[in-house]
Specification:
Helices cover 44% and strands 18% of the residues. It has 283 residues and is α/β, with parallel strands linked by helices. The chain is globular and about 55 Å long.
Amino acid sequence: MRTPDLATLRRAPHWSYSSLNTFLNVCSLQWAFRHVYAAEPRFTPAGLAFGGVFHRCLEYLARLRRSGEDAAAGRALDLFSDLWGQECRIAAPPLRFGDGDADALDALGRSMLAAYVAGTDPGETVVAVALPFSAPLVDAAGRALKKPLIGEVDCVVESGGSVTLVDWKTAARRWPESKVRLDLQPTCYLYAHRRNGGGAAAFRFDVVTKTKAPAVERHLTARTEDHFARLVETVKVVDGMVRAEHFLPNDQGWACADCPYAAACAAWHRDRSRSLINLRLVA
């Protein structure tokens, strides 16, 4: 049976990597403002919108490669400028810029795309693009949690008989090895791949740096059954924290400076009260 698209999967209660990562590694209160309290964000971080546009252009290039067409940089660069200009005009809530204005980010995005295209491996075959998934979270005792794990693999490639799930990232700087080793995303995606009957596969981050001379890094990693068991136990604990409304601000976190819920956070300790919680989880 064909898996529904990601938008359809998001309509039912679920967990996703992005949701878990926000709760565990960014700020559980930010997670609650979005997923539980339905607080209105004051702005859209320009970096978030930039990453979304860049991702759409990489998806366009991957689809060209899959169909056997020439994935020339020029077409993708022009697409980026068109999409970025549109995003700057219609984003709701409006964009808030930090480092660099709209024109500077347009030039940066074009430079990053050119670097990515130049580093593409012609020996790789793209076998899937924007591949949605949904998998039950099953613990070591064989008990399935109430909500599945959902997501979308950016790209699946094959080379020399080996299959790799690829996720595209932009980053301000080069990644340390520890991030690749500890990041939860490969665990989530490879768990779902294995749970859904997929064969042997690796996971790779394709990271493009937002530097003056963009660099393209490809970080290959793998996960074990023990990683998968730890993931499910972690989700079980997070489920309990959500039910108990255990949400706390991460006042010294890196995300505070660009958080669209900063005003709500500043008043959190004054406004906090026990209330009915909407436990529907969205990605």
